[in-house]
Design brief:
The protein is an alpha+beta fold. It contains three helices and three strands; from the N terminus they run αβαββα. 45% of the residues lie in helices and 15% in strands.
């Protein structure tokens, strides 16, 4: 019984270490600003994009007009544009 517990504990440790060392997907974009929140005719979008470019934050505009940023830069985008 002790052997089973030790093996399960070691397996858990290995999985946990793998999970901690797993890098984030650096190419995944998430929605940072919805087009409906950027004002009528998206008048705020140019100002938002200017700030993102100023702080070297990668962004995309999707087909709905939403502004997306890289998932790993989401915190930086929030700080620079708040």
């Amino acid at each position: 019984m002790k052997k089973i517990i030790v093996v399960l504990f070691l397996a858990f440790i290995v999985v946990f270490i793998y999970w901690l060392s797993k890098p984030d997907d650096s190419t995944e974009f998430v929605i940072f600003a919805y087009s409906k929140n950027l004002g009528k005719d998206a008048v705020l979008r140019p100002y938002l994009i200017k700030r993102l470019e100023q702080y070297n934050i990668s962004y995309q505009i999707d087909e709905n007009g939403n502004v997306l940023v890289l998932k790993k830069q989401l915190e930086d985008a929030t700080i620079c544009c708040s």
